[in-house]
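ARCHIVE CARD
CATEGORY: sequence design from structure
SOURCE FIELD: tokenized fold
FIELD CONTENT:
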């Protein structure tokens, strides 16, 4: 409390605190503490508005006092990306929660931005439906997932969460509540469920920007005349709160599949992964996900696959012979009717060979990132035919194996570099990997990193959509009040 008061005139700081308490309620407005950080930048106040109108009042108060605002959901990805230049008010979306407009046969649901994904899935499960979103961050809210455009294994079939948007409600930098696309009630009334209407109300960007700034374009680019409402809605994806504060999202939902099987096969080299993924995609088994896990070799006593496992026992490079640990895994998820899934699994095992194993349960690493807190986390995106080249480039630049995990069937994987690597070493690795990827239409983005690394390296790499993103920021947030500096180019 003292720190916040010293950074502003004490009387003005207390006045702002009283005003925030009047808007949100006394228990939901306070001076920020040491844990209220955004990528290492400590906030001055925390406000937890009880609804969209209260959140709008917080933004209007910030505008009146020339304060910056950074939204926060569950905080699972609060240290991702660049640190903001300043965090005055941290707007916690925890009370902007709920699942609405979700009758039993509905193909869409409107969901509050602060709703944890687990709560969304539990609510929809009561009517045997689900949101096909399986972001790896435990406890993540829907707003946080959309703000980071975070995807899990199901992206292979369903695309990113932002690709499943029908509409959104968000607050602009001036506190105006804007609706774009369709609300839950409008979408329910359409003949084609979840089709995503083109009506837009309120302000929309005059120029274009990538729907996910960190991915060089994301799902939609403004200015193409393709359902303008959804273009604006998807513009918020990946913006990390830098273009608007998400209030709710109307998403497509699907029936829960009656049958699920995981077919796994050990892999030893990235080139082997390349050949197997091509075989899986050519097999006509309609996979819901195709995931890869390439762990760093560990001493034999810590290996997870026992030497008697049928996938390794007959190989010439068996750990008992070579002293090396067992391999990584390529795992394919099949979903659908039980009989159909079983038949497809049989066809897939015939393609993958005798080492393939069918299970009713996901492997331990499924839907988890390969990096830990303190690591430098990378996201690599490349056409699937060049994924092996990207992994080899990363190994060569690092000088050894690197943990790699993600959607081999979509060409999007994550990798982990040790947090002990000095910033200049990380920078040289990024330069080497990006030089290989640029010719293959791929990208390597730093998702999260220690503060010293984050300050020293280019987090984004080449970003062709930066001029459009700059135009969108200038239109939606001309005074740079929303998460300033979180977007590429210091926007």
């Amino acid at each position: 409390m003292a720190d916040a008061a010293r950074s502003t005139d004490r009387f003005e700081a207390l006045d702002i605190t009283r005003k925030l308490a009047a808007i949100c309620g006394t228990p939901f407005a306070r001076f920020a503490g040491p844990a209220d950080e955004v990528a290492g930048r400590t906030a001055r106040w925390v406000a937890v508005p009880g609804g969209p109108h209260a959140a709008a009042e917080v933004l209007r108060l910030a505008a009146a006092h020339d304060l910056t605002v950074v939204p926060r959901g569950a905080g699972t990805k609060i240290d991702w990306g660049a640190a903001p230049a300043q965090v005055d008010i941290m707007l916690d979306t925890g009370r902007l929660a709920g699942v609405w407009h979700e009758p039993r046969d509905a193909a869409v649901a409107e969901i509050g931005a602060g709703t944890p994904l687990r709560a969304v899935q539990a609510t929809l499960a009561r009517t045997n439906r689900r949101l096909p979103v399986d972001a790896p961050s435990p406890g993540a809210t829907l707003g946080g997932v959309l703000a980071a455009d975070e995807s899990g294994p199901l992206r292979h079939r369903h695309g990113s969460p932002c690709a499943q948007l029908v509409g959104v409600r968000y607050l602009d930098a001036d506190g105006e509540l804007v609706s774009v696309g369709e609300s839950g009630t409008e979408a329910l009334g359409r003949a084609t469920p979840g089709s995503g209407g083109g009506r837009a109300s309120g302000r929309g960007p005059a120029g274009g920007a990538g729907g996910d700034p960190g991915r060089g374009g994301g799902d939609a680019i403004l200015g193409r005349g393709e359902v303008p409402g959804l273009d604006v809605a998807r513009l918020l994806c990946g913006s990390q709160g830098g273009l608007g504060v998400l209030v709710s999202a109307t998403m497509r939902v699907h029936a829960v599949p009656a049958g699920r099987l995981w077919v796994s096969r050990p892999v030893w080299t990235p080139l082997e992964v390349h050949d197997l993924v091509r075989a899986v995609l050519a097999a006509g088994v309609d996979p819901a996900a195709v995931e890869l896990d390439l762990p760093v070799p560990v001493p034999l006593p810590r290996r997870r696959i026992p030497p008697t496992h049928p996938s390794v026992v007959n190989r010439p490079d068996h750990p008992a012979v070579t002293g090396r640990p067992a391999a990584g895994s390529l795992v394919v998820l099949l979903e659908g009717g039980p009989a159909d899934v079983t038949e497809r699994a049989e066809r897939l095992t015939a393609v993958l060979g005798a080492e393939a194993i069918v299970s009713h349960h996901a492997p331990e690493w499924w839907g988890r990132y390969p990096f830990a807190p303190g690591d430098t986390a990378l996201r690599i995106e490349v056409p699937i035919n060049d994924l092996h080249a990207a992994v080899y480039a990363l190994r060569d630049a690092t000088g050894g194996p690197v943990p790699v995990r993600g959607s081999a069937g979509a060409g999007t994987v994550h990798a982990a570099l040790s947090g002990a690597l000095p910033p200049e070493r990380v920078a040289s690795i990024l330069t080497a990997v990006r030089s290989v990827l640029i010719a293959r239409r791929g990208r390597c983005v730093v998702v999260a990193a220690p503060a010293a690394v984050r300050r020293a390296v280019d987090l984004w790499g080449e970003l062709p959509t930066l001029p459009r993103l700059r135009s969108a920021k200038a239109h939606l947030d001309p005074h740079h009040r929303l998460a300033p500096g979180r977007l590429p180019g210091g926007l």
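CARD ANNOTATION: The chain has 15 helices and 21 strands. The chain has a mean pLDDT of 84.
SHELF: design records, drawer C
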